[in-house]
Design brief:
Layout: E1 3-5, E2 25-45, E3 55-65, E4 69-74, E5 81-101, H1 136-146, H2 151-165, E6 167-168, H3 179-185, E7 187-188, H4 190-203, E8 208-214, E9 224-231, E10 234-238, E11 250-255, E12 264-267, E13 271-281
Parallel strand pairs: 6-7
Antiparallel strand pairs: 1-12, 2-5, 2-12, 2-13, 3-5, 4-5, 8-9, 8-11, 9-10
C-alpha cells in the first residue's frame, strides 16, 4: 500500500500590490528531509520547483545520501518532474534552488469562464470528481451561496467564503480527509482549503486543479498547497488560506488533488525524524 506524505501549515492573510500588474521576485528554497527506513523501500518524490514560462530555475541542487536515483519522469500536465528512489536504513535529502518568478498579477474578478465545449481536452478531467474532491455534495452550496456570480467573480467569492468560515487547525485532518469532511468541520490545513475550493469550482462548471507550491509567506514555513482554476483559457492561481500570492509562489506540481502531487510517496515504511522547509525572497545577482 502506498503511503502519501503531505504536510501543510498556513494562517493569516497577505496582499501584494504592484503598479503594472507584473513583478519579478527572486526566491531561495532549501528543503531538508530526514527519515528512517527500517526495510528497503521505493520512494516517488516530487519536491523540485518546476521550470515554467513565468518561473525560471536559475540554479538547483538535489543531494540524496546513499539513495540512488532510479529514474526521472515528467509529472502531471508536464509541470515538474518526479524521481524514483530506492532507500534503506536512512533517507537524507537536501534540495536547494534559486528561482526568478515573473508571474503577472491578474484581476481574478474580471476573468471569464471558458464555455465547456471549448475547453482543451487536457483540461476536461479537472471538471470531474476525484479522490479528495467530490462534486455532488457541493452543488447545493455552490448554487445557494454563489449562484448569481460567474467566472472569476464566482471563484473570488468562494475563496473569500472559505477564508472567512474556516479555521486553520493542523490537528483537524489527515491524509484521508476529503473536501466533504473538511466542509462539515469547517477547519483544516492548506490541502483541505484547496480541496474545498476545487470541489466548489468543479460543482459550478469551472475546471480546478491542485497545486503544490513553495511560498515565502507561509508561517510557520512548510510545503504549501493552493488551487488553480481555468479562466480566460489559462490557469489562475487562488489561495483560499490567504497566505500566498501568485507573484511570490513557486509551483512544484499540479494534479487532480493531493493524491497526484504529494512531495513524497512511499511504497514501504518511512519514519519522520526531521523535516525543514525554508523559502525566502533574496537578491542573488
Amino acid at each position: 500500500m502506498a503511503l502519501a506524505v503531505l504536510f501543510g501549515r498556513d494562517r493569516g492573510k497577505l496582499l501584494l500590490n504592484t503598479a503594472d500588474g507584473e513583478c519579478s521576485v527572486k526566491i531561495y528554497i532549501r528543503v531538508h528531509l530526514d527519515y528512517r527506513v527500517p526495510e528497503p523501500c521505493t520512494i516517488l518524490m516530487q519536491l523540485e520547483a518546476a521550470e515554467l514560462v513565468q518561473q525560471t530555475v536559475n540554479s538547483c541542487e538535489l543531494v540524496i545520501a546513499d539513495s540512488p536515483v532510479l529514474n526521472r519522469l515528467e509529472a502531471g500536465d508536464g509541470v515538474g518532474e518526479r524521481v524514483w528512489l530506492q532507500v534503506v536504513g536512512k533517507f537524507d535529502c537536501i534540495y536547494r534552488a534559486k528561482l526568478n518568478i515573473t508571474r503577472t498579477q491578474v484581476d481574478l474578478d474580471s476573468t471569464c469562464a471558458t464555455p465547456l465545449p471549448d475547453l482543451p481536452a487536457e483540461v476536461v478531467k479537472y471538471l470531474l470528481p476525484s479522490r479528495y474532491c467530490p462534486i455532488i455534495e457541493f452543488e447545493y452550496l455552490a448554487v445557494s451561496h454563489f449562484g448569481d456570480r460567474q467566472g472569476g467573480a464566482l471563484i473570488s467569492a468562494m475563496s473569500d467564503w472559505i477564508y472567512d468560515n474556516f479555521t486553520y487547525d493542523i490537528g483537524a485532518s489527515d491524509a484521508t480527509t476529503t473536501a466533504q469532511q473538511s466542509l462539515e468541520q469547517r477547519r483544516g490545513v492548506c490541502r483541505d482549503y484547496a480541496h474545498v475550493l476545487i470541489s466548489m469550482a468543479r460543482a459550478s462548471g469551472i475546471p480546478a486543479r491542485y497545486a503544490s507550491v513553495y511560498s515565502p509567506d507561509v508561517d510557520p514555513m512548510d510545503f504549501h498547497a493552493v488551487a488553480e482554476v481555468f479562466l480566460d483559457n489559462a490557469w489562475q492561481m487562488v489561495d483560499p488560506t490567504g497566505m500566498s500570492v501568485p507573484q511570490r509562489t513557486a509551483i512544484i506540481g499540479v494534479g487532480r488533488d493531493a493524491t497526484d502531487v504529494a512531495f513524497l510517496t512511499s511504497f514501504g515504511d518511512l519514519h519522520l525524524v526531521n523535516q525543514q522547509v525554508q523559502v525566502e525572497v533574496v537578491d542573488f545577482d
